[in-house]
Amino acid sequence: MSNYWEERFAQEGMIWGTEPSSSAYAAFEHFKNAGAAAVLVPGAGYGRQTKVFSGSFATYGIEISPAALKLAAEWDPDAVFIAGSALETQLKTPVDAVYCYDVLHLFLDAERRRLIEVCLGQVRSGGLLYFTGFSDQDPMNGQGPLREQGTYEYKAGKYAHFFSDRDLRAHFAGTDILETGSFTELFHSVQDGSHSYSLRYILARKK
């Protein structure tokens, strides 16, 4: 997985352009209204989403790809980027909120649970978590070999999990789930062109 993304960032640079996801702006408002001061962004890539937060919050991005980190340092100098895995604890001091965009669906079940556990461990009690991931309503759902329930290798060497609302809520059992929903996102990729994806989001509070 890490090799795949390193190669893509190295070859394509800012793969999806500079425009953040609409969900980043939605998360920003939730975090601002909750009085957050510090935000963590696991799987930060080249900083496309962190820039939404770094002008108002102390923002920490975790990214495993050296090529992406180099781009991120130039694109969003106000954020602090940490080289490492989002599946491992990287912060010594808890933040007030976590925004995790389209990372959760990239893992198999055990690692998805691990990612959420690690994020919960890096956010304070009462802090917010805003996650997005592929929806089971997306046309790619069911394409390719089945890897696990709800997870398909929809491209050679690349698999994804497709969440129903019930499934997404189950992943966050043990938190206070404040809101879930779905939205459509248009991606512009240098390699793949423009594609529309169906995504789900969840807003939860750590107990």
The gist of it:
The protein is of the alpha/beta class and 207 residues long. The chain has 6 helices and 10 strands; from the N terminus they run ααβαβαββαββββαββ. It has a single domain, classed as Rossmann fold.
Question: Could you give the topology of this structure?
Answer:
Blueprint lengths: L1 H11 L9 H12 L4 E5 L7 H5 L3 E6 L2 H10 L4 E4 L11 E6 L8 H13 L1 E12 L11 E3 L2 E5 L2 E4 L3 H7 L4 E14 L3 E13 L2
Parallel strand pairs: 1-2, 1-4, 2-3, 4-5
Antiparallel strand pairs: 5-10, 6-7, 7-8, 9-10
Overview of this structure, please?
This protein is an alpha/beta fold. It has one domain: Rossmann fold (3-Layer(aba) Sandwich). The protein has six helices and ten strands; from the N terminus they run ααβαβαββαββββαββ. The strands form two sheets. The protein has a seven-stranded mixed β-sheet, sandwiched between helices. α5 links the parallel β4 and β5. The model has no long low-confidence stretch (mean pLDDT 94).
